[in-house]
Automatic annotation (TrEMBL), chain A:
Record has Mitochondrion as a keyword: yes
Protein family according to the UniProt entry: Belongs to the LipB family.
Residue span, BPL/LPL catalytic domain: 37-217
Protein name per Swiss-Prot or TrEMBL: Octanoyl-[acyl-carrier-protein]:protein N-octanoyltransferase LIPT2, mitochondrial
Keyword set includes Nucleus: no
Automatic annotation (TrEMBL), chain B:
Domain Lipoyl-binding intervals: 67-149
Keywords for this protein: Lipoyl, Mitochondrion, Transit peptide
One of the GO biological process terms: glycine decarboxylation via glycine cleavage system
Compartments where found: Mitochondrion
Protein's recorded name: Glycine cleavage system H protein
Broad class of where this protein is predominantly found: mitochondrion
Organism field: Onychostoma macrolepis
Length: 220, 174
């Protein structure tokens, strides 16, 4: 008996504010939870204007820290995801899978691991050797190329991953990315020594996602 | 009368000893000598006053008098990974059954917690602030999350007992 592969619908949001992307995610989450409709799993792809975001561990980022970061010209959001502080901005491919883990495996630990493996697979398609470490995320040596932070409620996932393509990396100098002292950040452009725009990363990321999650992608 | 008193003393000592037998560590050492079904009876019956009930979202509640202690199951803590942070409600928070009351963070993932009952939060496990790993290491004991009042005892009947929960999680392995 062949088991049907889960279907995931890809939605390209383009350059969108962080606030708007949160609203889109909430709409998709609501569709999942509203049992009267069979909601498709969705993969949202977008880029944000400069914004710093933090997760549920808020204590390390009091109002003074929020003001400091806003004064640098970025927006600031406190979210319900896991993970510490990170930056999103132009040149960074942000991916928000809003999935029902019941279609895959009901384990948040498994899901995060699969996301990491997806990005590692994508990096290898660029000829970059990436890896995981005890700190969640995808690394090239001691430098993080992709940050991860998710939320899960009733097995519906939101937030996701942020892959540096040709991001202006100086924005990361203003924070301790993901709260990890002593390690750095990198991007596809830095690793390959040439400009790699987010457009170039999209098809490779989607390819890796469909392989790793064993799903079919649809485009509406 | 002296005989009655003696018997009462003996039975009091015996029931005091029973809870010790129910602690998982002791159970494991007994497994070679006791038949499994005898083991289960000992384990379950001695916890009648504090039997665990489970939700389908893998929270458990243990009732002792008017207070329910709430935590997450072994299945849940394994599916989460190492817990690094527990976001718990304030004492006095009123909760409805199935309402979100907090979140646990593991592997950069924040997973919501759902109240098994309707009631008011009377205590939160402050040990989890410095030692969130207790949720993984001792999910049924020192890793408890909150204590709450039980406003609607009938809600307990809707929850799964241990045997039903075991069946439930087996059915999840797909």
């Amino acid at each position: 008996m062949t088991v049907a592969r889960a279907a995931v619908n890809v939605v390209r949001l383009g350059r969108i504010s962080y606030r708007s992307a949160l609203k889109v995610q909430q709409q998709h989450i609501k569709q999942h939870l509203d049992s009267s409709s069979t909601s498709p799993n969705t993969l949202l792809l977008c880029e944000h204007e400069p914004v710093y975001t933090v997760g549920i561990r808020r204590a390390p980022y009091p109002p003074e820290e929020e003001q400091r970061l806003k004064a640098l010209g970025a927006d600031f959001f406190r979210t319900n995801r896991g993970g510490l502080v990170t930056f999103h901005g132009p040149g960074q491919l942000v991916c928000y899978p809003v999935l029902n883990l019941a279609c895959f495996k009901k384990s948040v630990r498994w899901y995060v691991c699969e996301l990491e493996r997806t990005v590692i697979k994508m990096c290898s398609k660029f000829g970059i050797e990436a890896s995981t470490s005890p700190d969640t995320g995808v690394w090239v040596g001691d430098n993080k190329i992709c940050a991860l932070g998710i939320h899960c409620g009733r097995y519906i996932t939101s937030h996701g991953l942020a892959l540096n393509c040709n991001t202006d990396m100086s924005w990361f100098d203003n924070i301790v990315p993901c709260g990890i002292v002593g390690k750095g950040v990198t991007s596809l452009s830095r690793e390959l020594g040439r400009d790699v725009p987010t457009e170039e990363a999209v098809p490779k990321l989607l390819e890796a996602f469909t392989e790793q999650f064993n799903c079919t992608l649809t485009y509406n | 009368m002296a005989m009655c008193a003696a018997i009462r003393c003996v039975s009091a000592n015996f029931s005091a000893a029973l809870p010790l037998l129910t602690r998982p560590a002791h159970i494991r050492t007994c497994q070679n000598t006791l038949r499994p079904n005898v083991l289960r009876t000992l384990y379950t019956s001695s916890r009648l006053s504090g039997a665990l009930k489970f939700t389908d979202k893998h929270e458990w509640v243990r009732v002792e008098g008017n207070v329910g202690t709430v935590g997450i199951s072994n299945f849940a803590q394994e599916a989460l990974g190492d817990v690094v942070y527990c976001g718990l409600p304030e004492v006095g928070t009123k909760l409805e059954q199935m309402e979100e009351f907090g979140a646990l963070e593991s592997v950069k993932a924040a997973s919501e917690l759902y109240s098994p009952l309707t009631g008011e939060v009377t205590e939160i496990n402050t040990n989890l602030a410095d030692n969130p790993g207790l949720v993984n290491k001792a999910c049924y004991e020192d890793g408890w999350l909150i204590k709450m009042t039980i406003e609607k005892p009938a809600e307990l009947d809707e929850l799964m007992d241990e045997a039903s929960y075991e069946k439930f999680i087996k059915s999840l392995d797909s």
